[in-house]
Amino acid sequence: MQDGLFEVAAQRRELKDGAWLDVRTGWQPEPDELFAALARDVPWVEERRRMYDRTLPVPRLLRYYDTGAALPHPALGAARDRLTEMYWDDLREPFTSVGLCLYRDGSDSVAWHGDTIGRGATHDTVVAIVSLGSTRPFLMRPRGGGASTRLTVGHGDLLAMGGSAQRTWEHAVPKVPDAGPRISVQFRVAGVR
Ligand SMILES: O=C(O)CCC(=O)C(=O)O
Ligand SMILES: [Fe+2]
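Above: the input record for the complex with 2-oxoglutaric acid. Below: its predicted structure, written as tokens.
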């Protein structure tokens, strides 16, 4: 597989307001083994979030590996380093943290949001996501209004959101009537979450 600069530029899709999107199907080597190992070995956490006067479970399981943390599978370190090389001209800094989400079935989801904790709120960045397991829709919409973009992310696919995407656009993984488990692996630079 080739991650040359020309290829990186050729695949990129410009979105409005300085955001871009880069999708590569089948990017992750040996996704079956990685999915099975992460599903089995990661100490998944069900977080709760306060909503008005109640606390409700967040509808997906999570685990976050901040900069410097030991990762649960060697393929994650390899993917992180490969992504750092691919997006070096955009970032000029390495991907450091790894966020994991497990969507147990179609009723797990994430609502519209941008990754705006930290520098993503004010600076261009790249958030690169490797999708494993069941295929799910991945939606993006401009914060200022306008047409949304519907993508489908499947087993082993890479989806990178770059430029201003975290502050000028939002993304979501909606509920679907029927889906098997999906794991999302998000790579971010230090200070972005
Ligand atoms: O499931 C995904 O790939 C998206 C996850 C996401 O947007 C997040 O955790 O910030
Ligand atoms: Fe996100």
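Notes for the reader.
Residues 74-86 form the longest helix (13 residues).
The CA atoms of residues 133 and 182 lie 5 Å apart.
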